[in-house]
């Protein structure tokens, strides 16, 4: 087992990883920018190294500085967390070249899945159903028109390097296609430095359903069921639940088996998530994330498995200690992503937390780095807390979530708690009857 792990991230996820390490008797090294000297992960870690000024490119994305911190502190391994360098294959490679273990998949697998065109090709090759569209990238308008004639409208133009809900344009008809292509290309070039794009059928009323997997790089792969992340704003997840109210057991087992068979064939290692759109009983692959995901706790809550702990274990070279038969799904879990934003306008609301009181009680988990007196810096992601609630039934979970949101006090800044309170009492949400467009329609944005 490792003696010391460097956590190459910040915020709630850095704290989440610290907690898993401590429970395994592992020492932690925090890294931080000058804006994060007072952050909770820095306070709790055994050692902390300042790696640069506030701008992410100078600190949390500064590979040389992070590697130096790992060398100086003698860390055995590096956990990249979520975001920043978590899906950067070059970083994973450099970590290993410098003699540390990268807690994640191989650089090769990160690279393939990080390019959406290559990922779709790989998915098809290993037996995962994909959204109909272009086979690979689209170079010219003529090529796009040929694909459109075959697949039909509406179509979505997507950037190969896209992420975080950016780099997507819908074309409703043939005459709008060239414009969507050139807009997507120029946006992708500006945001990701890569203008490769591809085409997909635009599904009208799908749900976003993703399968959580865990694998050991030795041919063993299990799944922890699915998460329903259909409640989105601007293609970004707002509320997630597990299991999905839309799937039955047969569908759950079927998609779970398709995914685990495919990834075992690939010899995948570590945690990963395969994302699908689900419409009229059919699953269509959209992408794979080769890292932990923000919403991983809801799967942990219904399976009783600590995903970070298992990531660390398999990174030491250990085989998975459990098989699919050992996974028992228990009850229902929902996560609300609470951000430091105005709940109506979504204007950022960084600043000092004057009062802080987190909800508690049976089945309530709060993954947050906030504390009373903490100042949220304006430079980073607005996610400040994840409220995760578990119940024996979905209804129990909903009632518990209501009372937990009611108890939650985050004073001094605006947060999206009031928005969550409104969403979860809506009849469509209570009925589990929503698709990826529901939230924006309900908010009057569509
Ligand atoms: P990102 O990497 O930016 O998260 P994804 O490919 O995972 O991009 O897509 C994010 C979201 O965009 C999906 O959850 C869904 O809401 C929407 N989306 C993506 N592809 C399609 C499609 N073919 N049809 C309809 N909606 C789509």
Describe this protein's structure.
By secondary structure, the chain is an alpha+beta fold. It has 3 domains: 100 residues, Rossmann fold (3-Layer(aba) Sandwich); 70 residues, ATP-grasp fold, A domain (Dna Ligase, domain 1, 2-Layer Sandwich); 236 residues, ATP-grasp fold, B domain (D-amino Acid Aminotransferase, Chain A, domain 1). 33% of the residues lie in helices and 27% in strands. The chain has 15 helices and 20 strands. An 8-stranded antiparallel sheet has the order 13-12-9-10-11-14-19-17, with helices on both faces. Strands 3-2-1-4-5 form a 5-stranded parallel sheet. Strand 12 and strand 13 form a beta hairpin. Helix 4 packs antiparallel against helix 5. The protein is globular. 49% of the residues are buried. It binds adenosine-5'-diphosphate (ADP). The site of adenosine-5'-diphosphate has 19 residues, from strand 6, strand 8, strand 12 and strand 13.
Question: Could you name the key traits of this structure?
Answer:
446 residues; alpha+beta; Dna Ligase, domain 1; D-amino Acid Aminotransferase, Chain A, domain 1; eight-stranded antiparallel sheet; 27% strand
Secondary structure blueprint with pairings:
Blueprint lengths: L3 E4 L3 H13 L3 E7 L6 H5 L2 E6 L10 H11 L3 E3 L9 H9 L3 E2 L4 H8 L1 H10 L15 H11 L3 E9 L2 E6 L5 H16 L4 E5 L5 E10 L4 E13 L2 E7 L6 H18 L2 E11 L2 E8 L6 H8 L3 H9 L16 E8 L11 E2 L3 E2 L6 E5 L6 E2 L6 E9 L2 H14 L1 E2 L6 H7 L3 H4 L7 H5 L4
Helix pairs in contact: 4-5
The structure holds adenosine-5'-diphosphate.
The site of adenosine-5'-diphosphate has 19 residues, from strand 6, strand 8, strand 12 and strand 13.
